[in-house]
Each structure stands twice: as structure tokens, then as C-alpha cells.
């Protein structure tokens, strides 16, 4: 049994920035899109947007580590390439199996606008995400009100009895077939964010896949690109430097074994890459029960998971939540309305330094 403050779902540097909102105009554009939802989500969206515009754009500039100017992200070229990068949360659909359609419907009706999935039948039912989108369209939630992220998974990550492309085809063709399958499964003509599920064994192979991704962007099938399960800074930096179309997403498990990706998270903030977290709650019961989190939760009248999610959002990252509970969906969205103080941000951030974030600067 898990402690009461830990629930399954989602699947460092004390950064003083609250700068996932790279500038006011970028947020204004994304806010306008989010507000266009139907009446059933308007209240939740408006509450979240009001909190973000008022509570997520402050920035304390003192302290060591990466420069405050870099972390606050005020320059125009730091604006997100896609409005999805401005969303506080994504709803994750891994391991949902036959319940995927109903859970996506619940999440969108609760107020979520970003959906994460994968063309990997072993762990995701991308086709059932597509069925949910069809239902939502009939309810008045138009396609441009939702932000869809899916993934290409190599053979190593697939169930050998249920591979969504020709396993004997060249790698390039496998990627093309996977993209086509995702478009079919989701019932859409475009994917907002296409993510490589993990790096391939060599940089050359990773770049071969990336080249196919870039052609999909050129063709208008895909909006932006990213990579997941990439915990080695030199690997991610090499991809960023060599890619013609730069990654806009890095999605990693947020846990102690990786040192909480201190170096990678700083690099993402520097380059305007959205760092997405999964396994955020399940991997971190020690963080959720830590004194700074408990104190912040008490002050805000919040739960410890809400405080951790809020810290990630306020620092400029984008957590995934995969909760199956309607109540927890509401609580997760409410975290957007709970700004942490500068002192709380610093104290909670210090926990990630203590838990393996070597080289982390704390003041």
C-alpha cells in the first residue's frame, strides 16, 4: 500500500524562474486557444489561466547556478514553438488499456487540453485515444482545442506479437509507417508533437530516425519534435546540435536514480526545450513527505502531490499526470492556482539537490 499522499499516475537546480510562460504574448496566444473549450471545461480553464497569468510569471534573480536572465526566459526567441508547451499539464495515457477512451474523456472534461500517447500497443491504446477524440468532437471540442503528442517506439520497445509497422522494413520505413499509423489511430491529419520514445543505440541511428521526423514536419504532418527516456546529457546535446529541426520536448522519468536530471533540466531551460516529467509521484514518496512540501501544503490547504506538481510547473517544466481518479484530475488542475513563495521554491528545489542532484546550486 502507498502512503496516503502518494498515488499512481504520471508516467536539482533551484531554478528561480517561473518561466514556462516564455513571454506574455506567447501566453496570450495559448490562453486564447485554451479558453475556447466548451462550457463543461470553461470554469476550470479560466481558473487555471487566471492563476498562471498571475502566479507563474514572477522571477527571483538572485543566487548561483544558471543565469537568472536565462532561466527567466524573457527574450522573444524563447517563446514556445507550440501552444502545447504552455499548458501546465499533459494527461498521460500509458497503461490505461481498455479504459483509455473513458479516462481521456474524463480528463478533457475536467479541463486537460494536452494528451500524451504512443504508437506502442504494448503500453498504450493510441486507437482508443482516437475514439475519445471522436466523441469529444461530437460534444463540441474541436481538434484545434486539443494538443496531441505521440511517440515512435523502436522494435526493442514493442510487443513482438503486436508491432504497429513492418518489423522487416528498413528503419526509415518503420518510422514512416508508425507516423501513418498514429495519424490513422488518432483520426487526425496532424500530430502536434512527435517524440522518439528513446534514443537508439548509436547517435547515427537516432539521427536517421530524426531525419524522417523532420520530413514529417516539413510535410505538415507534425508540429514539433522531441525525445523521451534520454538521461545522458552528451547524447541530448549532440542531438540538439546536429538536428536541423531542434527538439522542443525532453520527456523523462523524474526520479532519484537520474539525479533528477539537473544538468538536462538547466540545458532545456537555456534552449527553450520543454522538460516533461513522468512517474512524478510514484517515484518520489520521500519528496512528498519531506518537511518543505508538507509545510507548503499546509499553508496552501493543498495536498503534497499538488505542491510537487506546482513546483514543477512554476520552475518551468511540464508534468504528466496519468491519474484514473476524477477527484485527482481536479486536484491536479487546481495546483495551477497555488503559487509557491520564493522561499518555498528554494526549499523544495533543495530536496532534489540532496537526493542526488550533484552540482546543484542552492542559496
Quick recap:
By secondary structure, this protein is an alpha/beta fold. It contains 14 helices and 8 strands.
Describe the fold and architecture.
The protein is an alpha/beta fold and 363 residues long. Helices cover 44% and strands 11% of the residues. It contains 14 helices and 8 strands. The chain has helices at residues 24-34, 39-55, 68-72, 100-110, 126-139, 171-186, 203-218, 233-242, 262-271, 285-288, 291-300, 304-315, 326-334, 342-354, and strands spanning 90-92, 114-116, 147-152, 191-196, 222-228, 249-253, 274-278, 318-321. Strands 1-2-3-4-5-6-7-8 form an 8-stranded parallel barrel, surrounded by 5 helices.
User: Helical residue percent?
Assistant: 40-55%
Biggest β-sheet: strands ordered side by side in the sheet: 1-2-3-4-5-6-7-8
Q: Helical stretch count?
A: 14
Number of strands: 8
Using the CA coordinates, give the radius of gyration.
19 Å
Are there runs of 5+ residues with pLDDT below 50, and where?
A: 1-81
- Taking all residues together, what is the mean pLDDT? 81
Distance between the termini: 36 Å
Q: How would you describe the shape?
A: globular
Main sheet characteristics? 8 strands, parallel, barrel
Give the structural class.
Answer: alpha/beta
Q: Work out the strand percent.
A: 5-15%
Order of secondary-structure elements: HHHEHEHEHEHEHEHEHHHEHH
Amino acid at each position: 500500500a502507498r502512503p496516503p499522499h502518494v498515488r499512481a499516475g504520471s508516467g536539482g537546480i533551484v531554478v528561480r524562474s517561473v518561466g514556462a510562460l516564455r513571454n506574455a504574448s506567447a501566453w496570450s496566444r495559448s490562453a486564447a486557444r485554451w479558453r475556447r473549450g466548451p462550457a463543461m471545461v470553461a470554469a476550470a480553464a479560466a481558473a487555471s489561466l487566471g492563476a498562471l497569468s498571475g502566479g507563474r510569471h514572477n522571477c527571483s534573480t538572485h543566487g548561483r547556478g544558471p543565469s537568472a536572465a536565462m532561466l527567466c526566459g524573457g527574450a522573444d526567441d524563447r517563446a514556445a514553438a507550440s501552444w502545447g508547451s504552455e499548458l501546465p499539464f499533459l494527461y498521460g495515457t500509458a497503461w490505461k488499456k481498455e479504459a483509455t477512451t473513458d479516462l481521456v474523456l474524463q480528463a478533457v472534461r475536467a479541463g486537460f487540453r494536452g494528451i500524451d500517447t504512443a504508437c506502442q500497443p504494448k503500453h498504450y491504446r493510441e486507437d482508443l485515444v482516437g475514439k475519445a477524440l471522436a466523441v469529444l468532437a461530437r460534444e463540441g471540442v474541436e481538434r484545434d482545442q486539443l494538443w496531441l503528442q505521440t511517440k515512435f517506439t523502436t522494435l526493442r520497445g514493442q510487443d513482438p506479437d503486436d508491432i504497429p509497422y513492418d518489423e522487416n522494413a528498413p528503419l526509415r520505413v518503420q518510422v514512416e509507417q508508425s507516423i501513418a499509423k498514429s495519424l490513422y489511430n488518432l483520426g487526425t491529419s496532424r500530430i502536434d508533437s512527435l517524440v522518439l520514445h528513446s534514443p537508439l543505440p548509436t547517435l547515427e541511428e537516432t539521427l536517421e530516425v530524426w531525419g524522417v521526423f523532420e520530413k514529417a514536419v516539413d510535410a505538415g504532418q507534425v508540429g514539433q519534435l522531441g525525445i523521451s527516456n534520454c538521461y545522458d546529457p552528451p547524447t541530448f546535446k549532440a542531438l540538439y546540435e546536429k538536428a536541423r529541426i531542434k527538439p522542443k520536448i525532453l520527456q523523462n522519468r523524474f526520479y532519484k536514480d537520474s539525479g533528477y536530471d539537473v544538468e538536462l533540466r538547466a540545458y532545456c531551460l537555456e534552449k527553450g526545450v520543454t522538460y516533461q516529467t513522468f512517474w512524478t509521484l510514484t517515484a518520489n514518496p520521500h519528496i512528498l513527505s519531506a518537511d518543505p512540501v508538507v509545510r507548503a501544503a499546509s499553508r496552501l490547504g493543498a495536498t503534497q502531490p499538488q505542491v510537487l506538481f506546482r513546483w514543477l510547473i512554476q520552475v518551468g517544466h511540464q508534468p504528466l499526470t496519468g491519474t484514473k481518479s476524477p477527484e485527482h484530475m481536479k486536484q491536479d488542475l487546481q495546483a495551477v492556482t497555488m503559487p509557491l513563495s520564493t522561499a518555498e521554491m528554494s526549499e523544495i528545489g533543495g530536496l532534489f539537490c540532496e537526493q542526488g542532484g550533484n552540482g546543484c546550486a542552492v542559496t
